[in-house]
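Kindly go through the following sequence and its backbone structure tokens. Advise at your convenience whether the structure tokens fit the sequence:

___
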Amino acid sequence: MTIWLTHFIENFGYLAIIFLIAVENIFPPIPSEVILTLAGFLVSGTKLTLIGVILASTLGSIIGAIILFSISRNLTLPRLEKLLETKLFKLLGFKKDDAQKAIDWFDKHGIGAIFYGRCIPVVRSLISIPAGIAQAGWTKFLVLTTLGSLVWNSVLVGLGHYMGKNWQVVVRIFDDYTIVIIILLLILFIYFGIKWYKTRIKK
């Protein structure tokens, strides 16, 4: 995979980076950690520049985020309420007003969720979905997505450039970080699942 990525980026430059990161934001077949650190390393032996790679990757992040955001915005409050009133969701303990509560929560905490979410593996690709469902404003969404992506991309590209031929060390470190995040998310999911069962379904 590394050889293919290297050839792809060397042949198509910034367009390859934009494309890869945009796809990774929608459906991450290749983690951004690999793409960004490799691109940072390739700055030394190609016509790519550090700033150019950071800007290209950030543009790719924005494109991918916009696609998910646009799709999820179609899931409006009335549609969400109708969905929660179906038999399956009622059996799971959901209520019609849960949709409005979720949107209200995101309206209150959405700024931090969008910005910091862009810097957390797994979450960074998914955060555009609740933002769209909550009908977050386009300006707020784009600004926070751009800033969060810029921070994440700058760190990884910079580390890849700094580490040079040892760029894969950074990937391994972030892989461990990602595993920790996934484990924490699973623990939270189980915890809230049990709590939800006791307060909604068991009753």
User: Anything to note?
Assistant: The radius of gyration is 19 Å. Residues 1-202 form one domain. The first helix runs from residue 2 to 26. The mean pLDDT is 82.
